[in-house]
């Protein structure tokens, strides 16, 4: 199968997904095989919501919208134009996926197949409904994908390389278990925002999207703020108020109440506004409904700190701080070439 065939297939998948990116799902007559798949995917979205309380319709739709925007022929061509796929010898690549946000493993799935390899997918039990159905649609629009896509719930076997995502603890297990295979092993990471006190209301409102989207469960969610000394939180709390309805959602509210009780019983100092707690802490990973913060003396010392901690950081949200920074509000809108942990997945796959 030629690269252009694979690009065409994924762009058609993107067109199919685009029907599910609004408040109301709209069946478009020109989409291939819609009579076979449209109602079925609606059902899978419903099942995903019922199976995992964090996968609300709003969060699933947001994830699907991101993929619909990236799975276009122009974006796929732009992404793949930087690589030479002519010497690929198809291998079986196993993917062990996380399940923290909807379709979190889709980029690895896409990268393996667009590279010309075969994929063996082991999903998280938290996110098991959406991808297999999309894979079936992909096989329907491009039959040459049949036999190249396998889903397994058992022990992985018969594969040549692996991409595995998990916690720091499971990563140690992965590194031992897959020590004889080419691999990408991903561990826990968190995202940070650097504020200077001069941010506009719009920037801070956008930052609230980086904090609250997916309830803060993604590695691209901002869980830590770096602030100048004497920073006033007034503008921050005012700007994030647009997210206050989140406290009406039971799973989030339960975590808020629990973590607040822990902080109060432990006599930790913190600020809170009824739906988010702000706590001074050197850690990067904050609990749900909490954002940690830390003061910095100068941008120079902060650059050194973040460089030393680079293995723990996924995204840096800032304005005018570094070349790697991401604009406020954009952490959950990665492009195809925004690789997790800054490891080029396609380059890895082309070396197999």
UniProtKB/TrEMBL annotation:
UniProt entry keywords in alphabetical sequence: NADP
Q: Which Pfam families match?
A: LuxC
- Gene Ontology molecular-function annotations: acyl-CoA dehydrogenase activity
Instruction: Report any one BP term from Gene Ontology.
Output: bioluminescence
Annotated protein name in UniProt: Acyl-CoA reductase
